[in-house]
Specification:
The chain is built from 13 helices and no strands. With 224 residues, it is mainly α. 26% of the residues are buried.
């Protein structure tokens, strides 16, 4: 209960920060930035900003790889919060984390969508995309411009802090996922927790496939 309360307070506190304490919102500049992103006019955008925006999307895909499976076993599904997260980032995710119950089991069969999210190929594609984004941002970005925008623009400031929150919140769900997948090496858990972003991606690439209840039954019959 204390942990759930802490998540709700974090959610409310982040909203309060964005509305009351963050730098001003420059609506015209934000709309221009989003227009340039979605119309592929990337030359007009600081590579750090473009990479950061894309990496927030990567974080959502990482969480999706865990929480759509988790939501199968919860009283409330994950998909409404996934949709909310597309528009609001970590603000859409936090309520699900606060409402879900700890669960280390999975029953039933995986459909095609869950099979995709559970595949190692999914993690490999995300990792490859992330490496490209990191090289692009660090190699070609203007850090002075980014710092100036972080200090003066609400959208950039909030997006940067949301990226950090995605990292800090990941340990709250990865433990249950490791148990569901019967992850063999607990020491890897430390790498997942403490290596920002890349540790989480490595976990998606290395975790064993989730065994559905039908597959377990077939395995038991075979062993007999």
């Amino acid at each position: 209960m204390t942990f759930k309360l802490a998540l709700w307070l974090l959610w409310a506190g982040f909203i309060a920060y964005i509305l009351l304490l963050a730098p001003p919102l420059h609506l015209d500049e934000t709309l221009t930035l989003l227009k340039n992103i979605f119309t592929l006019q990337w030359a007009a955008i600081n590579p750090i900003i473009l990479s950061l925006f894309s990496l927030v999307g990567i974080w959502l895909l990482i969480y999706s790889g865990l929480l759509f499976i988790d939501g199968r076993m919860q009283w409330i599904p994950f998909w409404p919060f996934a949709i909310a997260s597309v528009g609001s980032g970590v603000l859409g995710l936090l309520p699900y984390l606060a409402l879900r119950e700890p669960n280390q089991q999975f029953s039933g069969q995986k459909d095609a969508f869950l099979n995709l999210l559970d595949s190692r190929l999914y993690g490999i594609v995300l990792t490859f995309s992330t490496v490209i984004l990191l090289v692009y941002g660090f190699g070609f970005g203007d850090w002075g411009d980014y710092v100036q925008q972080f200090q003066s623009d609400r959208f950039i400031n909030g997006m940067s802090l949301a990226f950090c929150l995605f990292y800090l919140l990941f340990p709250t769900v990865v433990g249950d996922d490791m148990a569901r997948h019967r992850f063999p090496n607990a020491q890897v858990f430390l790498a997942v927790v403490f290596v920002p972003l890349l540790g989480s991606l490595a976990y998606l690439c290395l975790r064993p496939p989730l065994v559905s209840s039908a597959s377990r039954e077939e395995s038991l019959i075979t062993n007999r």
